[in-house]
Amino acid sequence: MKRKISILLAMLLTLSTFTDVAAAEDAVTKNEEVAEKTGVLELSIEDAIKLATESDRQMWEIDNGIKQAKDERRQGKNAKEQAEESMSFGTVPTDQYVVAILQKNDYYTKLADNKITQLEKSKDVLTKRIEMETKSLYYNVLLAEKKIEINQAKLSRADEQLRVVNLKFDNGSATKAEVLNGEMAVQQAKSDLDSEMDDLDTAKLDLLNRLDLPFDKEIVLTETELAYVPTEKLDLDEAIEKAKSDRPEILEAHNKLELQEIETHANTAYYTSNLWQYKVAVKRLEDAKLDVPQTYKDVELDVRKSYLNLVKTERALINIDKTVELAKEAARVKKLLYENGMATSFDVLDANTSLAESEKVHYELLVNYSLSKFLFDNSNLMGAQASK
User: What is the DSSP annotation of 205-222?
Assistant: First the structure.
């Protein structure tokens, strides 16, 4: 009896699972149908990153480079075996002896191996760079939309202020200069709003171009909030050590040194010390050895700069939050003073303008902070130059 009940429960669970999957598929299908009918593409940040990654030609080139390097590795293995056989029988031509030494020491196999590891590391870096570029363009659209909201609010306040000034002018308690100033404020707000509309169109074009979508494609961003997530306690030393372990520049410097040691060994084994080939090989090895500690130093410098930039941006963001609060209060007080005859319409308009500008700066700093945090969090893979 218990066995029958267990089987029945299993059947019910299975049926329920199939029902849930079918419902989810139906929901996806309906969304696709709606998107197809309306021509509007809804984009989350993850959707945008996926599209950007899939369309990136450099990513394709890296994949092709890895395949080619694997072929070169097989050729290097074969060349090593042939070189060992030729040198054992003494059949290596004089002008090919250095190449044979390199082949015997597995130079070309290691060269291919290093190329593969560097390309794979480059792929990781490129993935992060694409993510950062896409987020930046996505945020630029959000920023343009936020500025439009701010300018619409500014225009609404200017219209209301002009209405009040006109009423006061009609009853003789306001001057013509105040009316003209109010009209100029409304016109300026309209001009700013038109400019922000153009900036939004430009930001969308840049995003569409990065995602390899048609320029006339209508898109709606689904993640509309730019949220401030406070930075937790930062461990700069840990970030530096991780970068020294993972950064592609470090890997490249060590790989270059390893290959140069083999190359120098081959040249100094064949050429005498008075020949230029010998001297050049020795000099290249010295340079490769010096490059390693310098690369470590460069990476540490880059991480430290990334850290300072994050701290600076977060401090500025915290400060502008306070400025926005003060600007809102100033605008409220100036409006009350004006209503009680203790301030002019100029004061009210000036306070409203200051509020709008501080709100715009707030969102700009929010975008900069988000990108600075992303760069520091991934400083073990990418530096300031890699993010450009």
Answer: HHHHHHTT--TT-EEEES
Beta bridge partners of 219: 41
Per the CB < 8 A criterion, the answer to whether 178 and 169 are in contact is: yes
Give pLDDT, residue 10. Answer: 43
CB 380 within 8 Å of CB 247: yes
Q: Are 229 and 50 in contact (CB under 8 A)?
A: no
State the DSSP string of 242-303.
HHHHH-HHHHHHHHHHHHHHHHHHHHHHHS-TTSHHHHHHHHHHHHHHHHHHHHHHHHHHHH
Residue 52 CA to chain centroid, in angstroms?
Answer: 11
E strands, the chain, where? 40-43, 218-221
User: Over 50: is that where the pLDDT of 2 sits?
Assistant: no
Q: Which amino acid is at 372?
A: S
How many CA atoms lie within 13 Å of 340's alpha carbon, on the beta-carbon side?
Answer: 6
Residue 6 Rama label (left phi>0; alpha psi -120 to 50; beta) = alpha
Q: Dmax of the chain from CA atoms? A: 114
Task: Give the burial string for 317-330 (b: 16+ CB within 10 Å, else e).
Answer: beebeebbeebeeb
Helix-then-strand count for the chain, H and E: 10, 2
Q: How far apart, in whole angstroms, are the C-alpha atoms of residue 94 and residue 329?
A: 87
- Report residue 41: phi and psi, to 5°: -105, 120
Say what the alpha-carbon torsion angle 193, 195, 201, 203 is, to the nearest 10 degrees. -110
Q: Which residues are CB-neighbours of 102 under 8 A, at least 6 positions away?
A: 108, 262, 263, 266
97 falls in which pLDDT band (50, 70, 90)?
confident
Query: Of 106, 107, 117, nearest to 69 (Cα)?
Result: 117
Torsional sign, CA 280, 286, 292, 293 = negative
User: DSSP label at 386?
Assistant: T
Is the pLDDT score of 224 beyond 90?
no
